[in-house]
Amino acid sequence: MRVKEPIIIDTDPGIDDALAIILAYLSPDVDIRAITLTHGNVGLECVKKNAAVILHALNDNQRFLNLPPKRLPVLAIGASLPLAIKPVEATYFHGEDGLGMIYNELHKAPEDWERHLLHQGEEEDSAIAERRWFETTPRDAADEILYQLKQVEPLTMTIAAIGPLTNLALAYQRDPITFSRAKRVVIMGGAVNVPGNICAYAEFNFRADPHAAQIVMGTSKGFQHTPQGYQHRLDLIQQGKVAPCHIVIMPLDGSDDGTISKSDYEKYILPLGKSTPLYGFVNAFMRWSFEVCLEYYNLDNWAVYDAYTVLLLLEMIQDKGDGKGDPTFNERWDYEYLDLTVETEGQYTLGMCCVDRRDYQKDKKPWDGTANNVQCFLAGRGGRFRDIMLNTIFNARIGV
Ligand SMILES: [Ca+2]
Fold first, then answer.
1. Where's the Inosine/uridine-preferring nucleoside hydrolase domain (predicted)?
2. 333 three-state secondary structure
3. Which of 308, 306, 273 has the alpha carbon at shortest distance from 287?
4. What gap in Å lies between CA 37 and CA 292, rounded to an integer?
5. What is the pLDDT of residues 317-336, one digit of tens each?
6. Which of 29, 88, 210, 230 has the most CB atoms around its CB within 10 Å?
7. Ligand 1 centre and the CA of 294: distance in Å?
């Protein structure tokens, strides 16, 4: 049987988060063990409801299509505020509810979704237990991340982080040794050589909690993407020490390549209407996304950053952390290892990515343990994203 990679998705749904979760859920290569929730695109109350509704649509869909039931992911509630600044939200893009105002019209949340989020342990009402579409936990998101990392062998579980990094930073602060058991952390965030989106200099997720982003980038100090580096990490973990983390970012530089066009949406997605619970749900928010892209950016395609980050995660699975993955990987992606830090004080530049580009530093710094070493994906090639999204989620059978 195919071995699936266990993953945790840390998220602030969010319409592109919804597609990212759906892509991961439907992929045969990963097993979502936990979904951990953070403030971000919208406040935590909306995030909780949206996550419950996304998982409900997926679970309903499995039953509607008579597909075998999947392992229910744990849903863990996390940080409602950034570590040190006031919260910022992105309702201009995602709508006040975070999902393109779907609750106004097409889609209804299960009436008792909120009751399902309460962890009742042994006391649980059996009527609730029978209808579960996710598992609850007594732990908050940061503790759940640490708990899940302890349930598997070191360097086998990936974290996909597609919201502000508050929960990850808290997990690292609480227990850096356990945090460093993660195989890698694949993050949507940052703007390296391009302008920001939430403001001139910063991308939304890094700007929404710059202190957390800075802590997480700092976990990459001393990381080497080589067989020796992999063995070194494993040795440190086995000795009960903190190991360097493999921090991967998909900044705006790269993520603008992960698009779906309005014409593809109209050709492949819209006609599916409400023919399954999942298509009904997705169609409820996708029209909104294309309208916003046109209105705000005059674009007739939508860059689905978070889902594109999940695609990167899926294509990195074969690399266990020693840099020896699929030999064709480098034909598909452009990346650099950068000493990247995040501005936490700037008046104009809060959340900005700062890169040490001094040539004379290059030979010694990345490997002497003093510099961050973040793998930054600056471009993708081949336009696979559209085909994979349309085939995996919408059964479009492109190229099949
Ligand atoms: Ca997100």
1. 7-366
2. strand
3. 273
4. 25
5. 999 999 998 889 999 999 99
6. 210
7. 20
Kindly report whether the global pTM for this prediction surpasses the value 0.70.
yes
Local confidence band at 11 (pLDDT 50, 70, 90 cut-offs): very high
Distance 130 CA to ligand 1 centre (A): 30
pLDDT: is 129 or 323 the higher one?
323
Who surrounds ion ligand 1 at CB < 5 A?
12, 14, 17, 162-163, 306
- Written as one letter, the residue type at 182 is A
Find the domain containing 102 and state its range: 5-357+369-394
How far is ligand 1, taken at its centre, from the CA of residue 12, in Å? 5
Q: How far is the CA of 66 from the centre of ligand 1 (A)?
A: 30
- Judge whether 400 lies within some domain: no
User: Sign (positive/negative) of CA torsion 270, 274, 275, 276?
Assistant: positive
271 residue type, one letter: P
What average pLDDT does this structure show over 257-263? Answer: 90
* Distance (Å) from CA 77 to ligand 1 centroid: 15
Residue 136 falls inside a structural domain: yes
CATH number of residue 279's parent domain: 3.90.245.10
pLDDT digits 0-9 by tens, 207-235? 999 999 999 999 999 999 999 999 999 99
Q: What is the CA radius of gyration of the chain?
A: 20
Q: What is the pLDDT of residue 369?
A: 66
User: What's the total number of domains in the chain?
Assistant: 1
Residue 201 C-alpha to ligand 1 middle, in angstroms? Answer: 19
Q: How far is CA 367 from the centre of its chain?
A: 28
Cα 74–chain centre separation: 16
CA–centroid distance, residue 349 to ligand 1 (Å) = 21
C-alpha 102 – ligand 1 centre gap (Å): 17
Question: Residue 121: in which H helix or E strand, if any?
Answer: none
Would you say residue 363 lies in a domain?
A: no
162 or 45, greater pLDDT: 162
DSSP string covering 163-187: S-SHHHHHHHHH-HHHHTT-SEEEE
Q: What does the H/E/C string look like for 350-391?
A: CCCEEECCCHHHCCCHHHCCCCCCEEEEEEECCCHHHHHHHH
Residue 362 falls within a domain, yes or no? no
- Ligand 1 centre from 290 Cα, in Å? 17
